[in-house]
């Protein structure tokens, strides 16, 4: 379990350090994953690993174009918007929680987290 959290923390650290992009692209900020069935202008999250070469094809557990709050499992996400987004999460069964700031085109997490809030903004990710 700690290895999974360490991986998530490392991912979060890299996301926080990534420079902001000016517009969403059809390729992840990491250059590895495509948006799959996430439509332009939306933020999408999927509950399970689903990354064929064209990107996720499963039904997303979260799709939003505006600020959102609730509770949903997200294994990976894609920010297909032109805005930065803060994603509040916690790791079920632990005290680990945090916020990831994703720039346009970012796609990550890759550990099943519970996402509780998505907030769009134009300020830089730190």
Can you characterise this structure?
It comes from Micromonospora maris. Keywords: Signal. This is Peptidase inhibitor family I36. The protein has 1 helix and 6 strands. By secondary structure, the protein is mainly beta. It has one domain. The longest helix is centred in the first third of the chain and has 16 residues. The chain is globular, with a radius of gyration of 13 Å.
Task: Summarize the topology.
Layout: H1 2-17, E1 42-46, E2 62-64, E3 68-80, E4 84-90, E5 97-102, E6 109-121
Antiparallel strand pairs: 1-2, 1-3, 3-6, 4-5, 4-6
Number of continuous helical runs? 1
Which residues form runs of ≥5 with pLDDT under 50?
A: 1-31
Return the average pLDDT rounded to an integer: 78
Overall morphology = globular
Features:
126 residues, mainly beta, six-stranded antiparallel beta sheet, globular
Question: What is shown here, in short?
Answer:
The protein has about 130 residues and is mainly beta.
